[in-house]
Amino acid sequence: EGNSGLYVRGGGPDQNLILLDEAVVYNAAHLFGFFSVFNADAIKDINIIKGGMPAEYGGRLSSVLDITMKDGNNKKYEVDGGIGLLSSRLTIQGPIQKEKSSFIVSGRRTYIDVLSKPFIPKDSPSYGSGYYFYDLTTKVNYRISDKDRLYLSGYFGRDVFNFANTDNGIGIKIPWGNATTSLRWNHLFTDKLFMNTSLIFSDFRFEFNIAQSEFELKIFSGINDWNTKVDFLYQPSQRHTVKFGTNYIYHEFSPGNATGKSGDVVFEPDQIYKLYSNEGALYLSDDFEVSDVLKVHAGLRYSSFQHSGYISFRDYIKNDFTRSDDNYRHIEPRLSFRYQLTPTSSFKGAYTQNYQYIHLASTSSVTLPTDLWIPSSAGIEPKFADQYAIGYFKNLNDNMYETSIEAYYKEMTNLIEYKEGVLPEDNTNTSNDDAFAFGNGDSYGIELLLKKNKGKTTGWIGYTLSKTTLFFDDVNNGDPFPAKYDRRHDLEMTATHKLSDKWSFSSVFVYGTGNAITLPNERYAIGENIYTEFTSRNGFRMEPYHRLDISATYTPQKKKKFQSSWNFSIYNVYSRKNPYFIYFALEPNDGEEGSLVEGNVTPKAYQVSIFPILPSVTWNFNF
């Protein structure tokens, strides 16, 4: 519920490489996961890799989500859009110079803030509160010659939450979001040799602004990347493809900064606290068909990482600029194969080793934009994983059905967690060594899939049985404990039925084991001091998450140049109250005020849910 992260084969949300036209996207959701940051109207292709990661990808342990934007129609102008109850979108594309260059511009915005405003009385203390998001996706391309082509693409998106309380004069504004830019040059040397050169910028930023009377405070964090990469593809024959290349990333981390004002007194540091890192890689991979039934992918990736700048906030305060002596360098082998058993069945296997040099620090049971990205350094070693996977794949009834069963095992080393009793804000007063504990983990599971591709009714059923366990000497008394993203059972079912040329129906059902979280076990008072004892790390399971969504689409008879459709949908049909987080409150035993010191209160747990049943209507159009 309200989770914007992806969890793949026991990995956390920071272990997934999410790319939009080769630019890294650090926060992949709007409205806490209710909307994707990727506008479907602007997407050309999506490639998901969760096992057997090729050598051209690196820097993450679990998976790759590689998204390519549309280039834009280079023959005619098109307009696509949709007007709904919660959001609207508009996409315009067309030629700049026919058959030579084109563009696409796509934008979205929710208007929850606008729709809710009339229902909030003007004399209400919360008048002026609201939430909205917007994003803009753009791309242009130019064909220089038959062998050269340029692409320039960009994305900018923001979530904004506003809260106002006129009773005490408090105003809060919390914006966060991504920005990316990619400039690519494609060159064809020969029919067998191709090159892609890219200059890429990625940015993620979170802000918290609060103002009351003459007091103002701004807290912000984020990460910027400047990336240069060159990739080559050499294909000496139809059965043999070689890829090789290099890339360099300059990371700039802002793990937590603050500015403020109180009356005429202004607090603004002379220099923003930042961390800097250099990450590079070389890779070589070879795809070749050993025989008519055996295809092999073999690759090597050489990665390096150097942290430079202040090692910790303490060094920053002392102005003790240091450069880490620990320059990390590693070789990452990649190997996978596919053996064709019959024309409709195959057996696959893969082994990959991946290193990850940047980390997401979080104490929350869910992924939030407040989580901090930090680099490996002298005190924080890079994490790495070895993953083994095997699978059997079978198509049935003239490829009407696809079936598969895969098993995996993953060993993870140098994982980080905040030490017990340490909060993220404490990291500004301690070194990284003091704030974090380091340990290992393993994950294993079985994935089943049944997919129907043909007929009036299509869809798929996917089920995963898995277990992820962590081992930290300095956490949970050294005893093993489940990862907060351990999900024993994960089930997803989708179905689409085309009733006629005008009507189609679809449904989605998801079920997952609840998150593992740490809860307070008891709270007691000694004198005037209150102390809290906690259960074992991640020793409590929240209620399972499950939800059913349904939709119906009506498409009127198509006119010559104008096409439209109506989509009627219901999110969370039976209004399941899925847990977002749990909090505790002290309830007086006699119905009146009490205190823990006096012993006349009882702690009670309360569950917070976000999304109830949400019906929606959207009018889509194209011309």
Q: Could you characterize what this model shows?
A:
With 623 residues, the protein is mainly beta. Helices cover 2% and strands 63% of the residues. The protein contains 3 helices and 39 strands. The chain has a 22-stranded antiparallel β-barrel. The protein has a 4-stranded mixed beta sheet with strand order 2-1-6-5, with no helix packed on it. The protein has a two-stranded antiparallel sheet with strand order 3-4. A hairpin with a 2-residue loop joins strand 10 and strand 11. The model is unreliable at 313-324 and 425-431 (pLDDT under 50).
Write a short abstract of this structure.
This protein is mainly beta and 623 residues long.
Report how far apart the termini are: 37 Å
Uncertain segments of ≥5 residues (pLDDT<50)? 313-324, 425-431
Mean pLDDT across residues: 87
CATH class wording: Mainly Beta
Alpha-beta classification: mainly beta
List the helices and strands and how they pair.
Blueprint: E1 16-20, E2 23-24, E3 29-30, E4 35-36, E5 43-49, E6 63-69, E7 78-84, E8 87-97, E9 101-110, H1 112-116, E10 130-145, E11 148-165, E12 170-188, E13 193-212, E14 215-237, E15 240-262, E16 265-267, E17 275-289, E18 294-309, H2 313-317, E19 322-323, E20 328-342, E21 345-356, E22 358-361, E23 372-375, E24 383-396, E25 401-418, H3 432-435, E26 436-452, E27 457-472, E28 481-482, E29 489-498, E30 503-512, E31 516-517, E32 520-526, E33 529-534, E34 540-541, E35 545-554, E36 563-571, E37 581-588, E38 601-608, E39 614-622
Parallel strand pairs: 1-6
Antiparallel strand pairs: 1-2, 3-4, 5-6, 7-8, 7-39, 8-9, 9-10, 10-11, 11-12, 12-13, 13-14, 14-15, 15-16, 15-17, 17-18, 18-19, 18-20, 20-21, 21-24, 22-23, 24-25, 25-26, 26-27, 27-28, 27-29, 29-30, 30-35, 31-34, 32-33, 35-36, 36-39, 37-38
